[in-house]
């Protein structure tokens, strides 16, 4: 603990030292760097990061391309307070300032948007693994409750964006790597001042390091933008993904240490993952339209509508699930901008509606073939969000945000396998979730801010109807209050930048996962939890002359401290109060170096992850580990209009044995899902630029 406090104090001291330097008279700021400052779209701020009173992590295209171009996972995990896991290739989990107790697989309690449209369905689940790597240009991650504009949730918000290339071009890339990794991608973009379009196809496959971890994904994406007139635009986004990945199951500690590459083996009590052909088959089509209209220079409106269809099959060790999902919805945001003599601002208000319908049938699994039916259910949800937010730019370089939302949710459940049919309805009480945030610019390079926000997160449909097959109509929503303070800025003529945030989040009725003796999951409310944390980033990017051999250099680091505890949790007569929150590493740190020398570049990343508690009793921990990886490449022009790149890289260079995606509270101690040992990749990319009229 002393080391943590000393580390935190040193960062704070450095921050205030930078503040004193920034406050002193200095030469005018570098105009180019000011223009290149990141503009944040989260909370519809549309302002530089130095004027955003919120903890927002930004993942740019440059950040994404530091790694292997197969997944956003390593880039996302450079953001402090964010953890993305991969239990096996294609099987993702995601959390922001929280544990993964609510997500045995998939993404829950994190609201995600795709090009301004809800990607999270009306049942509270997000298929993040459907989005191909190259379909993402950048991402913004909002930490803490985002209720003022994004509705119910205690786990944060992620905004994914695909931008159409401004220059008409083709792109082809291919790569290969260890354990049968193959990836091919072809895209084209072009258009005119009034119409722009982008279309892409990507294929990715891998045999996986472990048994029963093969994956295959074919994804088609298309984005179109029409400028209808000087006041309005219409954009469309479409994707279709055919995803398959095998699921190997968790290992005990003894199995993990003996042979981490094995899948869960067959025992006298149950067949193993290989015998049961455990896997996920997901075919999803998604389409959305966004219409922007500006009545004048003060009033504007954005109207969006979307729909998706999913066919999902999941043979598991226990059973064989088949379900169909229909999801439709829309979102309307109206914005009013105003200017007063000494202050100005904007007001945003609107609503979002989602309808979700899913028949679910579960069968016996006879060696990968559906057998006798076990259950036949129908699930529905209706979700309505109304929101409003005022952003005020006040005298004295003060920026104030006042916002809030009302959330309405109803679930319907029907069991058709019994006579008479069982019908149950759950209508959650409407909840108001406010957010207040204030930022003060101390100088043109230094800002401090604070915020208070309320979180409300109802259980997802997958939690009220978990893999036990029993509908739980009494699972209560999570409710919490978050306090946050931060300081961010730069010094040394913007060569050094930093961002430090501290928060205290008190959560009531925390939802946690439990397991039945045969391994099925179900969820309970665990009383109260205390989630306190510190998040820091620090980077140094010296100014370099254009004629220098080294044209780009950036040294950066990030650190996350999580002091997460069960504060009031008694289950089956056992008191877990005071224990560490399951699945949360107390300390996570990263250091990276990015270097460009003429046409060559190198990216090196080292990360440390602390011991992770694997069960509520804190009797089992996954050991800490250090990972080192890197990518080197060469960029050139084959001809005047044909950029070319060749690259190669290594992951887990130290050949560590670790688990990236533990099964929490697993029965029989089957916690571990081993990640790949040392592995390699390499590839090429070519991007011919197309001249207008060619």
What can you tell me about this protein's structure?
- About 45% of the residues are buried.
- This protein has one domain: Maltoporin, Chain A (Beta Barrel), CATH 2.40.170.
- The termini are far apart.
- The protein contains seven helices and 39 strands.
- About 5% of the residues lie in helices and about 55% in strands.
- It has a 22-stranded antiparallel beta barrel. A five-stranded mixed sheet has the order 3-10-11-7-8. A two-stranded antiparallel ribbon has the order 1-2.
- It is mainly beta.
Helix and strand topology:
Layout: H1 2-23, H2 31-35, E1 39-40, E2 47-48, E3 56-59, H3 61-64, H4 73-76, E4 82-88, E5 91-96, E6 107-108, E7 111-114, E8 117-118, E9 125-126, E10 138-142, H5 147-150, E11 157-161, E12 169-177, E13 181-191, E14 195-206, E15 215-227, E16 232-246, H6 253-258, E17 279-294, E18 299-315, E19 320-339, E20 344-366, E21 369-394, E22 398-415, E23 422-443, E24 446-457, H7 461-464, E25 478-491, E26 496-508, E27 511-515, E28 521-525, E29 528-540, E30 550-568, E31 570-571, E32 574-575, E33 587-597, E34 600-609, E35 612-613, E36 621-622, E37 625-639, E38 642-651, E39 679-686
Parallel strand pairs: 7-11
Antiparallel strand pairs: 1-2, 3-10, 4-5, 6-9, 7-8, 10-11, 12-13, 12-39, 13-14, 14-15, 15-16, 16-17, 17-18, 18-19, 19-20, 20-21, 21-22, 22-23, 23-24, 24-25, 25-26, 26-29, 27-28, 29-30, 30-33, 31-32, 33-34, 34-37, 35-36, 37-38, 38-39
Family: Belongs to the TonB-dependent receptor family.
Subcellular location: Cell outer membrane
Main location: membrane
